[in-house]
# Entry
Amino acid sequence: MTDGWVDLDHEFDLVIDYDPSRWLEIPPRWEKESWQDIDAWARECAELLWRSHGQDPGESGVPFLAGTLRRCADVFAPERFDTRVLLHVTTPTSMPLPLFASVEPSRGERDETLRSLVLAKDPDAVELPVVETHRTEELGEGLRAFRYVRQDDSPDVLAGLRYAWRDDELGTDVAVWTATDDIGQVMRAAEDIEQLTHKIQIRVWELEETTSQDAPS
# Structure
């Protein structure tokens, strides 16, 4: 078992083959060694992003971006091993867009659950969400939904993009989602998000053979 690592409620998580020039993964909060070094992580990633884009950060560029990444980690770092959080970062001066992906044991009737996961009937939506079929080679046929959502405490409207799939053989539901009040940011990221969904796989663990040394990083 995985004593000393993390309690496993089920035997699977996600593997995401993302493009590091477009995406940056936030360390999980349950990975204590990484979380203790979160400031070093933010600083290193900020330096790498500036170098990879061939831009001069000046005196304030690296610390400003590092602070932004640290705040994103404070807010969005996942608590569970079966949830992944990536930041879509196109330039070192742009605001990162968080993207969440999770896998859980399947529940309920397939179509009803998938529509629930993409919030196809969101009562806060400005208009009826656009729901479409979305297939990937790894996850099969699922749903994709785009919607605009009212905010109670702001006149701004959130733009939300969500995906969901069910793997009947493994008994899992996978969801991917993002939302922001910068509608243009979601539109600009949509193609990269679409491509990323084709790089997501479900990984199944053999718990009786897994030890803390074998745990995923």
